[in-house]
Design brief:
Blueprint: H1 8-23, H2 28-52, H3 80-95, E1 100-103, H4 107-115, E2 120-124, E3 135-139, E4 153-159, H5 178-189, E5 190-202, E6 206-208, E7 212-214, H6 217-224, E8 228-236, E9 242-243, H7 250-254, E10 262-270
Parallel strand pairs: 1-2, 1-4, 2-3, 4-5
Antiparallel strand pairs: 5-10, 6-7, 8-9, 8-10
Helix pairs in contact: 3-4
Length: about 270
């Protein structure tokens, strides 16, 4: 049997239609996988009941069908968050800064990695209810900075966060220049010779409202060149693969490393 792969334009249309249907609360792909999984579910249940027989060690409780795990992988070693969180956490472990602050990165990813070996202070406009001893939390709008936080620390991370500032997605005020204000405040917070670990989506520059911005490489490098020296650059491409410590050649900068939705990871030192 020959399986035909739909043309690229057809796949874009299929994905677009699927996104609209998902938005309306219907998930056709998930439904298909669940219906396929039901065959294995009932077949396995029958086998288990036959094996149990009259044994009373375990009784059957409520049914709890898990229908997709059979065909899924053991985990995901791919993508923006996996690589940036692991890579930058390793950097902080090796450098051992006196005070490390995070701005808006993922709590159950990067922040948890760092909290496993040291204290970390986290700033986010959203509240957080749980408490962990190694995580000191500040609920603040980072487009505004209190004077008490100027030259506050020698190390800052902000991973996949700045692209959201000012778009209202997280209840933040609408501000077209929100990302610039946030980067300016990060610079004020960081001490001279302090390190900034920064990541953001890279590709053709645009706003996909109200999810995020995507930044051109030229734009980001120009934002940082006045106040920072770039130590190294890594990125995750559109396929979710990681490229560490790559050279910034003009051709790659201009083409955004051939990314439409990539993730640029910068290690910078404040001048």
């Amino acid at each position: 049997m020959i399986l035909l792969t739909p043309p690229k334009k057809a796949m874009k249309l299929i994905n677009k239609i699927n996104s609209i249907i998902n938005f309306l609360g219907f998930y056709p792909f998930k439904l298909y996988n669940n219906l396929t999984g039901l065959f294995f579910y009932f077949n396995d249940l029958r086998k288990l009941k036959n094996q149990k027989g009259k044994d009373s060690t375990f009784v059957f409780g409520k049914k709890y069908p898990m229908l997709n795990d059979r065909s899924s992988e053991a985990g995901t070693i791919k993508g923006h968050y996996f690589f940036q969180d692991l890579f930058v956490a390793q950097k902080i472990f090796n450098s051992q800064p006196k005070k490390h602050v995070d701005i808006g990165s993922r709590i159950d990813g990067f922040v948890a990695h760092v909290a496993s070996f040291r204290e970390i202070e986290v700033f986010d406009i959203r509240k957080i209810s749980s408490q962990v001893k190694e995580i000191k939390f500040h609920q603040k709008d980072f487009m505004q900075l209190d004077d008490s936080f100027i030259e506050y620390c020698d190390s800052i991370s902000s991973l996949h966060a700045i692209e959201h500032f000012g778009l209202g997605r997280y209840g933040d005020p609408i501000d077209y220049y929100g990302h610039i204000k946030a980067i300016s405040n990060i610079t004020k917070m960081l001490k001279k010779n302090g390190t900034l670990h920064f990541s953001a989506p890279i590709g053709k520059q645009r706003i996909e409202f109200n999810a995020h911005r995507v930044f051109a490489m030229h734009y980001l490098l120009n934002l940082f060149k006045k106040d920072y020296k770039l130590l190294n650059f890594s990125y995750v491409d559109d396929n979710g693969d990681f490229f560490q410590n790559v050279k910034l050649e003009e051709k790659n900068i201009k083409e955004n490393f051939n990314c439409n939705w990539g993730c640029g990871i910068f290690e910078l030192v404040k001048l």
